[in-house]
Amino acid sequence: MLIGGVPFTLNDDRLAARGINLNAFASVTYTPKIIDGLYGHVQLSASGNYLTNQKILNYNLGGELGLTLKQNANKFSAGIAYNKQYFDKQAYSNKLGTWATVAMPLSDKLYWSGRVSASKTFYTGTANRDLDFSIKQNFSYQHSVALGFNAAPVIELKKSFNKLKTNTKLGLTIGSRHTLGAGFTINTSLGSKLALYKHHNNVFAKTRKDLSLTAGIKATNSQLKLFNFAPYIEYKYEKHKSNIQIYNYQNHSFSVGITTRF
Predict the structure, then answer these.
(1) How many domains does the chain fold into?
(2) Burial degree of 185 (CB within 10 A; 0-12, 13-18, 19+)
(3) Cα-atom radius of gyration of the chain, to the nearest Å?
(4) Which of 19, 142, 171, 219 has fewest C-beta within 10 Å?
């Protein structure tokens, strides 16, 4: 069965729930110049998820539209976003939101960027609604061309028609970038996110609290670029712990793709 999009087996707890999921994601951004210092922002994205055990295909189609103002080294952007989600190839939800970003140098080696977003999700065939608000920041320290570090704190608030889904999330991810010989770049990351749910769950006689721990490594080779895209391979691990046992799980993911970021 699926609970919150995560597969679980409700049987002898000595039996591990295992499955292989296939995922794909693609995004294209176009930034046409309007006048000096002012640019358009058009982004189209698509993602898919295939659950091999259940033979279920889920996918998302969406995009962003906005404007970007560049003043010296500072950049300000704002716009609207839309996403349509399909669950098992059937229309599931529509999300409409607004967003704003700021990016600026704090010193010759330290950079800061922040993003504020708010969205409302409408679920097909029901009166259910979700309101989401998030503040995400990223601090990047470029020690040298060969070495860089970053830290990304985040706060997210969700108010749901289903009271048991209303929560506050606090997270922090730290990472590094190592440029090696022969065009290889290695990115590493460690992260944690704490989710505090607001309402008491009468079924489990608890107020839910989740802790997610993640680790990842990504390797890219810029010497194999084609039309400015280079291949990458990535591994991510997540351990999700909750005071409600059925929400405990571990996830390993491997991915390959192309990127313009190193």
Answers:
(1) 1
(2) buried
(3) 20
(4) 19
Amino acid sitting at position 256: V
4 in any annotated domain: no
**CA–CA dist 104, 77 (Å, integer):** 12
Q: Tens digits of per-residue pLDDT, 162-212?
A: 999 999 999 999 999 999 888 899 999 999 999 999 999 988 999 999 999
CATH number at residue 121: 2.40.170.20
**Listed residue (171, 92, 78, 163) closest to 125, CA to CA:** 92
**Residue 260 has what pLDDT?**
75
Summarised one tens digit per residue, pLDDT across range 121-156 is 999 989 899 999 999 999 999 999 899 999 999 999
Q: Which domain holds residue 97?
A: 72-259
Residue 185 covered by a domain = yes
The average pLDDT across 104-114 equals 96
Q: Do the domain assignments include residue 15?
A: no
Q: Quick one: which H or E segment has residue 236?
A: strand 230-242
Q: Which of 203, 215, 191, 217 is nearest to 245 (CA)?
A: 203
At residue 8 the predicted structure's pLDDT band, cuts being 50, 70 and 90, is very low
Kindly list the distances between the CA atom of residue 176 and the CA atoms of 105, 147, 160, 248, in Å, as whole numbers in the listed order.
18, 7, 35, 28
Residue 168 token pair: 């506050």
pLDDT of the residue at 149:
97
- Report yes or no on 219 lying in a domain: yes
In a 3-state reduction of DSSP, which class is residue 66? strand
d(CA 170, CA 172): 7
